[in-house]
């Protein structure tokens, strides 16, 4: 799945990119404004799409000075499905949160990071998931949960899911890639626990370098 272009799941055309922008904002856009956001497409190509979608009724147009401004017709029968596709990343994070909350051994902290967090995930990207395991967790139960989640998330997205796991003790002992964790603390999308917990922990560890 290409989360940076969510409607690619159903259409690889300019239409999907235009609809994704309109569905993600309540405001109005001229073709020029859309072109600045969707620079991979020509402005003329965007205009043609807008005219076609306006004829379908899914997009509304209003004259603003010498130009036309466009917005999604949220009363259209197709609008709820378009909006659902446009917010697919949010839906993914909510599903992951729900699964983690149901775990018998919940993580101390978890976050999605990498290309998803950077807004660069494509159909060929891995989905990176950081999981911090409680020190007293049952190892077999924990491993089973992680394996099940990796399979589920891959089924949801089509992307290979790559869990990155540490125990609390491993963090305290600095047996980890500090650069990765600091990137998660800055840019990761938290799905369990508190980002402040990770940030505070990393600050404490760094402070102990002496």
UniProtKB/TrEMBL annotation:
<feature type="domain" description="Polymerase nucleotidyl transferase">
    <location>
        <begin position="97"/>
        <end position="138"/>
    </location>
</feature>
<dbReference type="InterPro" id="IPR043519">
    <property type="entry name" value="NT_sf"/>
</dbReference>
<dbReference type="GO" id="GO:0016779">
    <property type="term" value="F:nucleotidyltransferase activity"/>
</dbReference>
<protein>
    <recommendedName>
        <fullName>Polymerase nucleotidyl transferase domain-containing protein</fullName>
    </recommendedName>
</protein>
<keyword id="KW-0804">Transcription</keyword>
<dbReference type="Pfam" id="PF01909">
    <property type="entry name" value="NTP_transf_2"/>
</dbReference>
<dbReference type="Pfam" id="PF03965">
    <property type="entry name" value="Penicillinase_R"/>
</dbReference>
<dbReference type="InterPro" id="IPR005650">
    <property type="entry name" value="BlaI_family"/>
</dbReference>
<dbReference type="InterPro" id="IPR002934">
    <property type="entry name" value="Polymerase_NTP_transf_dom"/>
</dbReference>
<dbReference type="GO" id="GO:0003677">
    <property type="term" value="F:DNA binding"/>
</dbReference>
<dbReference type="GO" id="GO:0045892">
    <property type="term" value="P:negative regulation of DNA-templated transcription"/>
</dbReference>
<keyword id="KW-0805">Transcription regulation</keyword>
<comment type="similarity">
    <text>Belongs to the BlaI transcriptional regulatory family.</text>
</comment>
<dbReference type="InterPro" id="IPR036388">
    <property type="entry name" value="WH-like_DNA-bd_sf"/>
</dbReference>
<keyword id="KW-0238">DNA-binding</keyword>
<dbReference type="InterPro" id="IPR036390">
    <property type="entry name" value="WH_DNA-bd_sf"/>
</dbReference>
